[in-house]
Amino acid sequence: MPIQIFCSVSFSSGEEAPGPLGDVWGPQQRRQRDNSESEEEEEEKEQEAVRKEAREEDSPMDLVAFANSCTLHGASHIFVEGGPGPRQALWAVAFVLALGAFLCQVGDRVAYYLSYPHVTLLDEVATTELAFPAVTLCNTNAVRLSQLSYPDLLYLAPMLGLDESDDPGVPLAPPGPEAFSGEPFNLHRFYNRSCHRLEDMLLDCSYCGGPCGPHNFSVVFTRYGKCYTFNSGRDGRPRLKTMKGGTGNGLEIMLDIQQDEYLPVWGETDETSFEAGIKVQIHSQDEPPFIDQLGFGVAPGFQTFVSCQEQRLIYLPPPWGTCKAVTMDSDFFDSYSITACRIDCETRYLVENCNCRMVHMPGDAPYCTPEQYKECADPALDFLVEKDQEYCVCEMPCNLTRYGKELSMVKIPSKASAKYLAKKFNKSEQYIGENILVLDIFFEVLNYETIEQKKAYEIAGLLGDIGGQMGRFRGASILTVLELFAYAYEVIKHKLCRRGKCQKEAKRSSADKGVALSLDDVKRHNPCESLRGHPAGMTYAANILPHHPARGTFEDFTC
Mapping DSSP to helix (H, G, I), strand (E, B) and coil, where does residue 386 land? Predict the structure, then answer.
């Protein structure tokens, strides 16, 4: 089987090789050898030039050349050939001052952005219709005197400031069926049967020019006892809308507050009222009434006009604002509002501390007795409202609807109408003047206000200000910053990779070089003797050496 041997051989002897090998090489072979050597030298030179160009390409641009080509203003005047001078020093001072002013401006803008400022925008939006709000009204007197029996008076004595031994000084009603039922007194049931009834108080009612009545009101309990809400939107009733603004296009009611049914004041307690009239709250249907704190009073003997405007408030969440997009985590209310959160919190506080709840509070805990009202519930609630600011923390919702109000009033009845009204309602003129009131609630115009918080400074403004200051003080742009980063990257890459590349090039150049053998090395191996001992059939491939004519066997060339 033929064996092929490939090698690169160069000879260190002269042109006239002595011995038999010199006789074998003629002028043609010497020319071929010279051409081969010259070609190898040219190839080595070309490879060296290529490696040199590669090293030059890999090496980063020097600082002077980069300063001349960079778009950063002032750099070409500082880094020049021949080293720094007075002119370059002045340019350097100007460069540093401009850089310092730029950094100060950037710091100021970043600090302003991190303060998260906001602005409040006010806008008015016209519309063709508006949903009419819910209107809750309560008589300031919770219990009618004509419904108060002696057992009731003894039961309510702690709440009314009356001692059991004191003479009430007023005639009392006979005991009702509940007094003989054997069931314990329940404050909720007591208020429900003894309060002022809307059927007795409501003398006239109209909405947008059409008639309305007690059936348009829903019962709700508050700190004033049993109250009534118009347009509550509950119990499957649709929410009313109004198509026009102005007087006569809303709710107008005439009420008899029934002062002759007011309880005498036997002492000062949290449940004692010195006022005569009604409390009114205008609110959204999505929030419960909180009339003892948010309601306004309407006095008898006057017609009160309430001009409303719907306001839709949109607040920002932290860090720009204080609102929180919260959902109502409550067993009592479906939607979140500050009043719902407050009532829910007060209910839990009283149940934890007094093991009972007030009449207006939701839940299934037992109602507080008058003794519990006096000894625990009222003091605990006062403490919660005035001093304990950590237990009830109700976050401001990010979307809120409220109603701005403007009140005005006129005297009623006039001298001309007093006799007519007295005859109409079968009351005396004095009674009409002391007990009758008219309440007129309407939208001033058919539009609503939007009060919206907006971010005053966003990331786009910050980047714009930084870019403007960069152009003013440095004459640079974002592409200039990219140029600086690219140059820094090339310098770092060259310093980190230069040693590794040199080692690779050294290995590659040593592998490219051929093996140089002198004629004495060839003779020292004495291949002829070993070959002569081999079988005659052992042959080698032709053209074993470069630029050598074809030979049949290796010994034809060497031996």
Answer: helix
294-322 burial by CB neighbour count: b if 16+ within 10 A, else e? Answer: bbeebebbbbbbbbbbbeebbbbeeebbe
Distance between CA atoms of residues 88 and 82, nearest Å: 11
Q: What residue ranges of the chain have pLDDT lower than 50?
A: 1, 6, 9-25, 513-516, 522, 527-559
Q: What is the pLDDT of residues 181-193, one digit of tens each?
A: 666 788 888 898 8
What single letter denotes the amino acid at residue 343? I
What tens digit of pLDDT does each residue of 333-361 get? 888 888 998 999 999 999 999 999 999 99
Q: Is 273 exposed, middle or buried (0-12, 13-18, 19+ CB in 10 A)?
A: middle
8 Å CB contact between 288 and 334: no
Amino acid at 127: T
pTM of the model: 0.69
Q: Given the structure tokens 């600011």, which residue do they identify?
A: 389
The 3-state DSSP class for residue 556 equals helix
* 3-class secondary-structure state, position 239: coil
Tokens found for residue 314: 């949109």
Cα separation, 156 vs 167, in Å, equals 14
**Residue 28 tokens, joined:** 């043609």
Which tokens in the block code for residue 246?
A: 């102005």
Token couple for 355: 């093991």
Closest among 514, 520, 513, 515 to 13, alpha carbons compared: 520
Specify the pLDDT at position 540. 43
Tokens of 357: 């709840």
Q: Which of 529, 527, 551 is nearest to 540 (CA)?
A: 551
> Could you tell me which of 340, 341, 315 has the C-alpha nearest to residue 398?
315
